[in-house]
Amino acid sequence: MEKIGMERHAAIAYDGFAPATAQQGGLGDLLKLALDFIRRRYVLIFLGIAVAFGLGFSYLKLAPPTYKATSKMLVENEQIRFVQQQSYVSQGSVDLAHLENQIEILKSKPVAVSVIRKLNLASSPEFNRTISGIVPQIYRLVWSYAGWPANASPTKAVDSGRDPSDDLVAAFESRLDCLRVGMSNVIEITYNASNPYLAAKIANAVATAYLAERLDAKAKASRVEVAWLQKRLTELGAQAISSERAVNQYRTLNNIVTVAGNSIGEQQISDLNRHLVEARTRMAEAAARMQRYQTIIGSDPEHLATANADSDAPIGDALSSTIINDLRKQYLDYSRRSAEWTARFGPKHLAVVNLRRKMRDIRTSIADELHRLGEASKNDYMVSKQQVQSIEAQLAKAVSDSRAVNSTESKMRELEVNAKTYRGLYDSFLQQYMRTIQQQSFPVAEARVISSAAPPQSKSKPKSALIIAFSLAVGGALGAGLGLLRDLTDGVFRTSNQVESKLDTKCLSIVPMFEERRLRRRRGSGKDDSDANAHKRLIVHGSDRFWAATQKPLSHFAESIRFINLAVDQALSFTSSKVVGVTSTLPNEGKTTIAAAISALTAQRGKRVIVVDCDLRNPSLSRRLTPEARCGLVDVITGRCSLSEAIWHDSKTNLAFLPLVTEPASLCTGDILLTEGTEALFEELRRKYDYVIVDLPPVNPVVDVRTTTPWIDGFLLVIEWGRTKMDMVQQALHLAPDVREALIGAVLNKTDMRAIRRYDTCHSYPTTYKEAA
After folding, report:
1. Is-contact 613 664, C-beta < 8 A?
2. Which of 332, 326, 342 is nearest to 307 (CA)?
3. Which residue numbers in the chain have pLDDT < 70?
4. Domain count, the chain
5. Pairing between strand 507-512 and 691-695?
6. Run of H or E including 28
7. Rounded to 5 degrees, what are φ and ψ at 672?
8. Is residue 472 domain-shared with residue 600, that is, in the same domain?
9. Where would a tag sit more exposed on the chain, N or C end, judged by fewer CB atoms within 10 A?
10. Element holding 277 (H helix, E strand)
11. 69 bridge partner residues
12. What is the domain range of residue 59?
């Protein structure tokens, strides 16, 4: 038996039906998986998208719209010195600190209060949070959508003279935003409101209130400054006049004469100091000139004649003389000619000797001229020195004379300094006073509106396109997530690939779901009235599904049964008489229908086929085909009747059937199938028939199937599509290793051919059967 089992297992290598191969990795396979998933779970995905779209659309309809209005203001330089600038337009850029200060002023509470009072926002439903109740709320929503003016109010107006509450100011400031535009001096004032006209009106009102506040602040500061300056000018004027009178009285009493504000002695000393400085300067220049000439005289005359005046300062002074300059030009010309003639005629040529004599004479003349210039510079130095000595003597005498009046003049100078100080303070304050008066007459806010806010054409929040796109994306993700969760928790067989991967066996066929219909019964309800068949017990044709494969041979149901027959022939090719057991994991998976269809289709081919109902717990095949049978399988095994007395036949296909008529409750099923009589019966059936198809009970609930492995060549496992759990089938085969070893393959039964295309496009079939002609 072990050897036979190994042969059976080897024979299962069957290629008649090519199931879906394991999917390979790659972009194409991933795309195919995604498309299959969408086809499979498109209902959940569409439902998720529809729900999310409905929620997003409802939000867009119920959420109050927000409109953003923007005005722009240019902040200019603060004009501190109006009179000195002489300009009505500020220059330069505003520093960052000043610009931040202006932004904070724009967002300050005084500006907010001014706008609230001016537009009467306290009575606006958008800001009045004290209004409660469903009716005011609905009226407020209608007010925002109706586009009423900003001062329109569906409620009773609030006294505008009262200060607005802190909550109202906070609500106003929360919708106001002021930002610097880039690196410029422009401030962007943005306000958000549910009404576009109200948003534009408030943005412009904020800019106007800011300008008014700045002008008012400057006017107040100017008034305070003018009052203080007037008082201070009166005091400084009196002090300046008193100090000047004291200076004049002291000068008169002490007989002090001044020239241009100074005494005569001081004026003389000042003039002598100036002349002394000039004389010393001339003497120093003469001394330096004399020293340079002495340096030149002591040098080589030939060096003087050929030296560069730009690099040698003493030579440059000497060249200021016209005579010396002319002599140097002649010398340089003779020197050039001497070099040329020496190279041409030789150094001892007469012309070269004459040129050298002339050059020597020129050097002597230059030396004589330098001695004359040196004597002249020496004389200039002596004259300058005498002048300095004379001025120093005069200055010493003037200083001696002025010491006598120093004590008197020091007191007068003190009085004059006081007078000048008070007069200077008075003049400075007078200028500031005049500047302040002019600023009062020409107020400047140092800011101007360059772009007024206009009512926005579209709302800024919520963004319809973004909300809808987000809703669709979330809905698609939600539907896909639910579909993926459904796939992960499905746990049932839906494709042949799942059968092969989970059970490690071939998926022999995918049998479509059969719709139960009543076929046209043959005459006599399956009984033949002819004389030849009068003695036979005939099977009743009362069910569509048992005979659909023979009565509709061109249908997909019949084709799927042929795949099973072919697989059985190839798998059990080692024996001429094949005993095939048809079982399932659970009841009602269609094993009885598959067993009947296989038997009928095989018998139609002319084979000797018998169907044995071994489902001792639920003999449904016997109840359908032989409801009038009086003896059956158990009677034959126990010897109460012969095999020929228990077998029924089909007159058209010559199919034989051994029913089961004994009540299951009265049987110990496992013991009956293990008896020697059962094994002997099936040996006899193997000799008489080509195929013995055994309708077995399910594997999981009872132990009967495991007792049949000694006399069954191979098993067919029927799995109901979309219902049978994977883990349950795996557990059942794990507990029945003999059945697994002899397993020919599995059959996916009751397959929804419309739905399977959503799980595996390799098994796409038409949705209707092709009937026989």
Report:
1. no
2. 332
3. 1-25, 77-94, 128-162, 255-265, 298-320, 401-409, 439-445, 515-536, 542-544, 662-671, 761-773
4. 4
5. unpaired
6. helix 27-62
7. -65, -45
8. no
9. C
10. helix 264-297
11. 191
12. 21-63+462-488
